[in-house]
C-alpha cells in the first residue's frame, strides 16, 4: 500500500473511532467512574495500533501509588505513546484546551491545563499537588515545549516543587521517562525522517498528521527509569537535574541504536551501588568509574521489554 493510500484509509478510520469513543469517555467522566482513568489507555493503545506505532517498553511504570512521570516531548503523538502505557492524566499548556479535537480529548482525559505566566506558577502547582494527593498519576513535559526529537531541552524546575508534597503521608514518587522515535518500516529513522514525527515550531497539525500516516509503521522506544523521591536530593533543582540527565541519556542511547534494555538495567546497577552524596544532593558515581563489563553483558543478555499489543 502506497503512503498516500495508507493515510487516506487510516485517517478516516482514526477519526471515526475517536468520534465513536468520545461519548463513552464523556459518560465515564460525568459519572466519576473508575473507567474514566482506565479507558483513555485503551483508546491510546488503539490509536497506536491504527497509526502503526510499535511501542517498545523498557522498565516498569509506577502503578501502585500517586506518581509524577517526567518525559521529554517532541510531538502531540507522544500523548498516545505515553497514554498507551500509563493510566494517568497529562499536564499541558492552556492553549491545548482550544485545539480542534485534541483539546476535547485532553479535557476528557482530565488534563491539568497550566498558563505560562510566572505569577500563576504557585497556584497551578497547588492544583497539580491536589490531583496527586487525590491519588492521580500525572505526566509532565518539563521542557515546556516540543522540539525536533533529536535532543532533550533543559528542564524547567518550577513544577518539581510538587515533589515536596507527601500524598498519603509518603514522599511523592517521580519517575523519569525517555521517549524516542527510532525506526520506520523496520529501518533506523535518522535525522531527516525524525522531524516527520516531531511536531514543533509553526508546523501545521493536520498536514503533519497526514505525513506521519504516509510513512508507515514506526518503532517508539519508551524507557522508564528507576523512580526517585525528593528525599534523595538536596532540593527540587537537584531532583530536576537528575531527571533531565536520566531522560537525556535514555534518548541519546535510543537514537544511537543501543539496547534500551541494557540502558535500563545499567541504570539499575548504578542505582544499586548507591549514590555519592555531597551536601545532601544525589550524584551519580564518577564518570571515570566504568561499570563492570559483566554488568553490561548481563544487561544485554537479560533485558526484557514488552510491546504494546498489536
TrEMBL record:
Cite the GO molecular-function annotations of the record: 1-acylglycerol-3-phosphate O-acyltransferase activity
Question: What residue stretches are annotated with the Phospholipid/glycerol acyltransferase domain?
Answer: 67-182
Which keywords annotate this record?
A: Acyltransferase, Lipid biosynthesis, Lipid metabolism, Transferase
Region (Disordered) location: 279-310
Q: Give the matching SMART domains.
A: PlsC (SM00563)
The pathway is: Lipid metabolism
Superkingdom of origin: Bacteria
Q: Which PANTHER family match?
A: 1-ACYL-SN-GLYCEROL-3-PHOSPHATE ACYLTRANSFERASE, 1-ACYL-SN-GLYCEROL-3-PHOSPHATE ACYLTRANSFERASE-RELATED
This chain belongs to the protein called 1-acyl-sn-glycerol-3-phosphate acyltransferase
